[in-house]
Amino acid sequence: MSDTTITALATTLMHTPWAGEPPANGIMPPTHREILVLEISTRGGITGMAYLQPLAGGLATLEACMREMIAPKVLGRDATEVEGIWQSLWKSTYWLGRAGVAVFCLSAVDIALWDIVGKRAGLPLHRLWGKCRDEVPAYGSGCWRGLGRDGMIARARRFTETGFDAVKMQVAHLRPWREDVANVRAMREALGPGVEIMIDVNMGWSADTAIQAGRYFDELDVYWLEEPVVCEDFEGYRRVASALRTRVVGGESHFTRYDLRPFFAVPSSPILQPDPMRGGLTELRKIAAVAETWGLTIAPHLFHELNVHLLASIPNASWLEYMDWNDDLWVEPAIPVSGRLKPPEAPGHGLRFKPEVLRDHRVGGFEAGLERAA
Question: With a threshold of 0.90, does the pTM exceed it?
Answer without folding.
Answer: yes
